[in-house]
Design a protein that fits this description.
This protein has about 80 residues and is mostly helical. The chain is elongated, with a radius of gyration of 19 Å. The protein contains four helices and no strands.
Amino acid sequence: MGFVSEAVAAEITQLGVGDRAPGLAELAESLARSVDEAVDQPSAKAAAARELRAVMKDLRALAPAQAEGGALDDLAAKRAKRRGA
């Protein structure tokens, strides 16, 4: 597995969209392999990369929203800890 393939597989796992859109996820992994394998074919590599970018954009849009703590949440947690809450 090449660098792009590994990165795409890891992102699909992180996004949790493999079960939600299995065909699209498989297409992304196939395009990633094409990018990795097109060493001596720059135009094929560019075309596969362009399609991969579009498919990954679609997969990211399908990913469930994740609540990430920002700076304000961190301050609120520290304040609650200080107050013994």
